[in-house]
C-alpha cells in the first residue's frame, strides 16, 4: 500500500487541486495523493482545470472534499498550501509528516480575464516547482 499524501487548503477549489494533480503526475507511482479543504467551496475552479490542462494534467474529474472525510484514513503526510488550512488542520491517524507551503490564492485575482488567467498560471508554476522538487526527493529517499 502506498503512503497517503493529503494536500489541504481552505476552499479546496484551486491550489490544493493543482498541487494534487502535479504531485500525482510526478510521483503517483510512489504515493497516493488526495486534496481536501477545511471549508470546501464545492467545486474545482475552471481556471485551475484550464491551466493544468495546458501542462498536460487533467483534473476535470476532481471534486471538492472536506478534510474530515480523511480522518478515518491512514494519512502519512499532510501538506497545507494556505495559512487558514494550516491553522485548522487536525492530526490525522498515522500522520508522520506535516509541511506548510503557502501559495497566493489565484481565485482572489482581479483584472481582465487574461490577467486573472496569468495569475493562475503564475501560481501553477510556483506549485509545480515546489511539488516536483518534493516528488524528486521522494524518488531519492531510501524505501523500506
Automatic annotation (TrEMBL):
CDD domains: LMWP_ArsC
Gene3D superfamilies, A to Z: 3.40.50.2300
Record keywords: Arsenical resistance
This protein's record includes keyword Amino-acid biosynthesis: no
Keyword Cell membrane attributed: no
Organism: Opitutus terrae (strain DSM 11246 / JCM 15787 / PB90-1)
Protein name according to UniProt: Protein tyrosine phosphatase
InterPro entries: Ptyr_pPase, Ptyr_pPase_sf
Domain Phosphotyrosine protein phosphatase I: 3-137
GO biological process, one term: response to arsenic-containing substance
Amino acid at each position: 500500500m502506498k503512503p497517503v499524501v493529503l494536500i489541504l487548503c481552505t476552499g479546496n477549489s484551486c491550489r490544493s487541486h493543482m498541487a494534487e494533480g502535479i504531485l500525482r503526475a510526478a510521483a503517483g507511482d510512489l504515493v497516493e495523493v488526495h486534496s481536501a479543504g477545511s471549508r470546501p467551496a464545492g467545486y474545482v475552479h475552471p481556471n485551475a482545470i484550464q491551466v493544468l490542462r495546458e501542462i498536460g494534467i487533467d483534473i476535470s474529474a476532481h471534486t471538492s472534499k472536506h478534510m474530515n472525510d480523511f480522518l478515518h484514513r491512514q494519512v502519512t503526510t499532510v501538506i497545507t498550501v494556505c495559512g487558514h488550512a494550516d491553522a485548522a488542520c487536525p492530526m490525522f491517524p498515522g500522520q508522520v509528516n506535516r509541511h506548510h507551503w503557502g501559495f497566493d490564492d489565484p481565485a482572489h485575482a482581479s483584472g481582465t480575464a487574461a490577467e486573472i488567467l496569468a495569475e493562475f498560471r503564475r501560481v501553477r508554476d510556483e506549485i509545480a516547482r515546489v511539488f516536483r522538487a518534493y516528488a524528486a526527493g521522494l524518488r531519492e529517499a531510501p524505501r523500506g
